[in-house]
């Protein structure tokens, strides 16, 4: 016998029938109706509990993206109405509040109850679940339709910009690498012309131009291919920000208040861990290492306040004097008198209802922008 080819002795199993679901009837939610078709004993739809715990409010981290929007309409009454769109990252729900404006005849307040919003143009009675608005669908310049109302997103708060830039892998409109690559593909054939246009905008060669001329140049170069949020991201990345000198006593007073409220007194242990990580026993540690150690101790301070404090105790080589840092935080031994005023340059102090400027920069450093875009000019 030379042929050892196996011979099938069992009949092939029949293909499994594809499970089909009946279309949505309109009663209850789509998810609840779908779960009732999964088995004889209906179960409630499962929520993403892990996402809820990760993206729930924690201290000053609200995990809520807020945008300023206006209605897309030709009505002279409705076109000046302003709305605050809040997107809750913990459960992908959206709420809309209308900004109160005096002498308009419109009361303002709650405009849309918090909940998930379906994207328009979908069939109602279908078997597949509907698509809902996600965080990536909201950015400056986006047009969205909520239950028949067309909105144009015109601005966002500072927390939203910072969150989207920190999570740039999730938001392409806030990813400076993706934006520069996209812009380079469009503008590289005209690199010399673009350099000349930027130079003509800065006749005194200050190496800085204002944001509005910079935006107009980007719009003319891209011919409207970039969203407003992408241009804002470039402006924020290369912008010259309004910096003010923060008072060390003010920062320590704020830190002491937070440490007292949370009864934090593990200063000796914190100092011992910092000293243990100082292998060379030089009395200084890198900024990021000190921040990581403080986070491991669950220091009850906001991340921005912690980084500002660490910066105050840095030397010229960005090394933190951790002994002075811990002594400054020790509210038991080094008490600081309560502060009376906050020295922060506030704009429009008489009108708290107005939105703060979304781009706190004086100008744009266009030379580093051109070098990153086209390479350094010889």
Question: Overview of this structure, please?
Answer:
There is one protein chain. Strands 4-3-2-1-6-5 form a six-stranded antiparallel β-sheet, with helices on one face. The protein has a two-stranded antiparallel ribbon with strand order 7-10. It has a two-stranded antiparallel ribbon with strand order 8-9. It has three domains: 49-162, PH-domain like (Roll); 175-240 and 363-374; 246-329, EF-hand (Recoverin, domain 1, Orthogonal Bundle), CATH 1.10.238.10. The chain is built from 13 helices and ten strands. It starts with 29 loop residues before the first helix and ends with a helix. The longest helix has 14 residues, at 248-261. With 378 residues, the chain is of the alpha+beta class. It has helices at residues 30-35, 49-55, 158-166, 176-187, 191-201, 211-222, 228-237, 248-261, 267-277, 287-296, 303-312, 322-329, 366-374, and strands spanning 64-71, 82-88, 93-98, 109-115, 143-146, 149-156, 239-241, 284-286, 319-321, 361-364. The protein is extended.
